[in-house]
Write the structure tokens for this entry.
Amino acid sequence: MPVEVYFNVAISGLLAGLIYGLSALGLSVIFGVIRIVNFAHGEIMVIGMFFALVLFRSLGLDPLLSVPIVAVVLFGFGYLLQTVVIERVAHLADHYQFLLMAAIAIILISASLMVFGPDAQGAQLPYAFDSFQIGPLIIDKVRLYAGAAALVVAALLFAFFRYTSTGKAIRACGDNPAGALVVGLNVRHMYALTFGIGAACLGAAGAIILMVVDAHPYLGPEYTLLAFIIVIVGGLGSLPGAMLGGVLIGTSEALAGILLQPSLKSAFSFGLLILVLLLRPQGLLGKASQ
Amino acid sequence: MILEVQNLDLFYGDAQALSDVSLAVEEGAIVAIVGANGAGKSSLIRTIAGIERPRRGSIRYRGKEIAGSKSSVVCNLGIGQVAEGRQIFPNLTVAENLEVGALVPRGRPHMKESFARVYDMFPRLEERHGQYAGTLSGGEQQMLAIGRCLMAKPEMIMFDEPSLGLAPALVEEVFRIIARLHQDGLTILLVEQNVAHSLKISDRAYVLENGQIVLEGSGEELLNDDGVRQAYMGL
């Protein structure tokens, strides 16, 4: 095979990795601040995909343009989920949380099955088969747009946490919840905002990934697992780590597909996970715990 | 009275931490609460601050009942807290720590002046404004905790063991700062293991034992009380 092919595959893997990274950000933000392991991660993302699909079918809205809408609606969903449901188990032992989140995942899968049926459905974009040619490289238009959109949303999220007062207050709650009470932050509201923001990331990632992947109800667990691998590789709680992990996993899966076997691509990401756990258990950009 | 606590009971599960605690703080005064470790001093502060919920009793701030209110509400009334163990945000910068301290509604509109005031009081914090708070020395972290509290424009500050774990020179510094805040018109509620020092500067003091107030009086009276001298100052 000509060498350009490898580059083409690597670039398309990297672009997919940016979307994985955005989705993993959602997991990382929620875990980093509220210390909730969101086992319904992938399912919430699939809800975002279906929502973008509905907007595409009913209004003809390009998934790229539906990103803000889906993000805002899932923000509201996340905010309510935290205040109405999850908060009630926050003071209980971890396994109650796990069971609750797993239950929410099952409910979301079943709900999307009831509404959309079991078949894979995608958004047929008019530019689905267009591509850009840069020298010898060929990049799919949809993938480039999707990757760029994921990068923009991630950059907005970083800016929010770095420059806005609310972003700093949320980081403060994650850093030291006892200290947050001391300065009179409304921690309950901050946690709900955080879950909302995490869900909004998933909504954005779901809308974006609909450009390149067909939606179906059973995609959820796969994305949950993927996000866990990414977050562990990148470093739990590290936002840049989640993006880096996403890009690494995306690129290595794509290359594994062409170098070895497409069916072996998961083995590649798990291999990466094992390597990181052996050599740098806190993750690539994670901080070692005391 | 700026603060009146009456018949306060606090439980952690079945364990009683405070029992029938009553005290009063006059506006502009320094009031000390002394007692051994585990006597309930921090529990008392945390209950006034709205972090713990009392089972019984009343806490009135400027006549308004605040027992059981959330800490965000209490903080916004002007009751600041410099907590035990400082409770700063180690992975936020010094400036971010201060900013977060000013986010209660009463602090937010005055953020700029508050930054100027705190940096004027603690030039060291201005020098290190971009540094992560976790990299500061213990003394600097204590200054940051005090500065962060001031950002919310409090009228009364509750200090919980502010000198704990600090070198003697820094302990002096902390007491100087408390005296200065008092001169600026702030009301101070001080919990300290440094009994002699805190009784010396306080207008009124309470001795807490096993969750109960066992003695009260002016700072000077308690300083000359044989029981207090024996129990807490080893004299």
Summary: The beta strands of chain A are 131-134, 137-140. The domain at 3-279 of chain A is CATH 1.10.3470 (ABC transporter involved in vitamin B12 uptake, BtuC).
